């Protein structure tokens, strides 16, 4: 039978009556009194032993070893670290692999290390309260589980991690499952606004072939932290890799589900690279809620690859304009953000990496990295994707553009109507701000855009404004269509589909600031898509003929046959009165025959 307790059962101590005086003989009453005393003592000690055995039975029946049976008090007045550690150590010699911390307050002065395969279960009102803030609260070994309870850090200056995992312990992807779930963690409110300290979840790799895979974090709430989730592979691996190409470590394929956080500098901080030797990738963050504040540095900071984030990010407008909520660094690759945010997300991201994707119901531009979601018919051509844009070559249909505020640009304003989005008028944004922007007005009243959507600007890479406001004139009033603040890298600043105008007569665009050192901003194109007609750029979207005018000013209709060949039925009357028939070969060669 496995050993359940380390303490021995209490000895039975019997208190006999005082020695009878030799001058007095023992009476029957003396004997009776002595027997009564012995009986009471034995019964009392038997009661104590029975209680101890009852505790053991309760522990076994409940499937766990109770820390109170190992000497923990749960009063909040006595340090219970050794008692908790003692209960956890009993799992090494017991078939019971669950340790229970019932409701109460437990002071701890060192890290609670949960052994491999052990489940530490806290009561719903069990509170872990450290005596100082310079040690990790919990460290899990592979296959360990930690569930329930509260961690209260309000009385210390906490600088470490609540949950620490060391990749040197090797958390394997197959055959193991470490779990942390159903806990609330409250850190101290900093005396200096925004000066949060400590980390909620810290998964770290510092040694060769160290890895953390397939760990599950579920239903956790964090308040007042420097970093809520920090996944890190140490840069020392880069140095080791220089002399040994077989060196590698990773923090990959972990799950973070229903994580809630408020008051923090960084929500999710992924520190590493897109591949070995410092691989931080394939981690999944799902159904998470993060509340942004004015002191938030980023909701997501990502240096890795193939990570997916399904997040709701509250009140991004509270953040400083220079602090984008989502930051993909140069080493990031193929990450995806999914969010229900619409307008706000377009104001709050920077992507210096490769093929990262940001999906939002009102933000098709950043998701697809194209001009806009165009209306199309299956199996029909899309002529460079610009045929739905009413403003392409709009100046040829009487559209005008006028600058109404700010210093004059370099270049020609009407270049914003050209299909090439890599050139256009440029401005020096020095001295511009929200109250003092550059402002241009496009008058398209000669041919209003019917049911206009996706209205905004396209900029060459690294020539974007930090702030932009787009308004539309309906014929009777100016209405708000789109606004961006704190932009650092988004070169498409186009309104979501719900920003629509039945008849768009004018477009007013105000913009200010630049993230570049030379403060240069260029507008390559201004965009306005019609959701009714099929646009007026270049040629009609669907056609079987092309109108042309030759050098003599004569009009032609070049037609396509149903099989895709050119129609050879073109005729021309020459000045001498003769009629000529033109033939165009499939190679594009033109020949004439006199009729």
Quick rundown:
The protein is built from 5 helices and 41 strands. With 595 residues, the chain is mainly beta.
Characterize the overall form: elongated
Question: SS-based structural class?
Answer: mainly beta
Give the number of helices.
5
How much strand content do the residues show? 35-45%
Distance between the termini: 114 Å
Rg estimate, integer Å = 37 Å
Q: What oligomeric arrangement do these chains adopt?
A: single chain
Q: How many extended strands?
A: 41
Helix content range: 10-25%
Model regions low in confidence, pLDDT < 50 over at least 5 residues: 1-12, 362-386, 538-542
Itemize the secondary structure elements and their pairings.
Layout: H1 28-61, E1 65-66, E2 75-79, H2 81-89, E3 98-101, E4 104-108, E5 112-114, E6 119-122, E7 126-130, E8 138-140, E9 145-147, E10 150-153, E11 161-166, E12 179-187, E13 199-205, E14 211-213, E15 216-233, H3 236-243, E16 249-252, E17 255-271, E18 278-279, E19 284-291, E20 298-302, E21 308-314, E22 326-328, E23 336-339, H4 343-346, E24 349-351, E25 357-359, H5 364-368, E26 400-405, E27 426-428, E28 438-443, E29 449-458, E30 467-473, E31 478-484, E32 492-494, E33 501-504, E34 506-512, E35 520-522, E36 525-530, E37 545-549, E38 555-559, E39 570-573, E40 579-584, E41 590-594
Parallel strand pairs: 1-3, 2-4, 3-6, 4-7, 5-8, 6-9, 7-10, 8-11, 9-12, 10-12, 11-13, 12-15, 13-15, 14-16, 15-17, 16-18, 17-19, 17-20, 19-21, 20-22, 21-23, 22-24, 23-25
Antiparallel strand pairs: 26-28, 27-35, 28-34, 29-32, 29-33, 29-36, 30-31, 30-34, 37-38, 39-40, 40-41
């Amino acid at each position: 039978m496995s050993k359940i307790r380390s303490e021995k059962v209490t000895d039975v101590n019997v208190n006999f009556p005082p020695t009878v005086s030799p001058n007095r003989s023992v009476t029957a009453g003396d004997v009776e009194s002595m027997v009564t005393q012995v009986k009471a003592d034995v019964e009392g000690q038997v009661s104590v032993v029975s209680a101890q055995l009852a505790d053991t039975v309760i522990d076994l029946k409940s499937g766990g070893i109770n820390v109170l049976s190992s000497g923990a008090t749960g009063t909040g007045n006595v340090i219970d670290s050794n008692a908790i550690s003692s209960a956890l150590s009993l799992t090494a010699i017991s078939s019971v692999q669950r340790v229970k911390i019932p409701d109460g307050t437990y002071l701890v002065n060192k890290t609670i290390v949960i052994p491999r395969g052990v489940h530490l279960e806290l009561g719903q009102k069990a509170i872990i309260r450290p005596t100082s803030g310079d040690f990790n609260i919990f460290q899990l070994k592979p296959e360990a589980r930690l569930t329930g309870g509260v961690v209260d850090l309000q009385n210390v200056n906490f600088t470490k991690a609540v949950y620490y995992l060391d990749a040197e312990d090797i958390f394997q992807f197959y055959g193991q499952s470490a779990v942390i779930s159903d806990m609330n963690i409250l850190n101290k409110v900093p005396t200096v606004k925004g000066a949060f300290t400590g980390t909620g979840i810290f998964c770290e790799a510092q040694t060769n072939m160290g890895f953390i895979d397939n760990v599950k974090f579920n239903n956790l709430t964090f308040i007042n932290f420097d970093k809520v989730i920090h996944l890190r592979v140490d840069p020392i691996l880069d140095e080791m890799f220089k002399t040994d190409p077989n060196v590698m470590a990773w923090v990959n394929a972990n799950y973070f589900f229903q994580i809630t956080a408020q008051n923090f500098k960084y929500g999710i901080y992924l520190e590493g690279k897109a591949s070995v030797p410092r691989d931080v990738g394939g981690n999944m963050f799902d159904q998470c809620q993060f509340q942004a504040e004015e002191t938030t540095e980023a909701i997501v900071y990502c240096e890795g690859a193939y990570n997916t984030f399904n997040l709701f990010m509250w009140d991004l407008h509270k953040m400083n304009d220079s602090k984008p909520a989502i930051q993909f660094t140069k080493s990031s690759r193929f990450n995806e953000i999914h969010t229900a945010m619409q307008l706000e997300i377009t104001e709050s991201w920077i992507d210096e990496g490769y093929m990262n994707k940001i999906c939002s119901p009102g933000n098709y531009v950043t998701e697809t990295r194209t001009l806009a979601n165009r209306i199309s018919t299956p199996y029909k051509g899309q002529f460079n994707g610009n045929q739905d844009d009413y403003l392409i070559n709009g100046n040829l249909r009487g559209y005008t553009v006028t600058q109404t505020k700010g210093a004059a640009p370099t270049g020609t304003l009407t270049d914003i109507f050209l299909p090439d989005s890599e050139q256009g008028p440029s401005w020096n944004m020095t001295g511009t701000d929200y109250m003092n922007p550059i402002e241009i007005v496009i008058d398209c009243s000669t041919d209003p855009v019917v049911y206009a959507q996706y209205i905004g600007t396209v900029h060459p890479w690294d020539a974007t404004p930090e702030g932009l406001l787009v308004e539309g004139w309906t014929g009777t009033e100016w209405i708000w269509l789109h606004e961006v603040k704190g932009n650092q890298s988004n070169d498409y600043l186009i309104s979501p589909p719900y920003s629509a105008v039945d008849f768009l007569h004018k477009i007013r665009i105000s913009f200010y600031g630049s993230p570049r050192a030379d403060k240069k901003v260029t507008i390559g194109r201004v965009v306005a898509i019609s959701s009714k007609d099929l646009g007026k750029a270049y040629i009609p979207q669907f056609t079987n003929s092309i109108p042309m005018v030759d050098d003599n000013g004569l009009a032609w209709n070049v037609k396509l046959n149903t099989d895709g060949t050119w129609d050879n039925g073109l005729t021309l009357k020459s000045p001498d009165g003769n009629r000529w028939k033109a033939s165009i070969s499939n190679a594009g060669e033109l020949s004439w025959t006199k009729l």
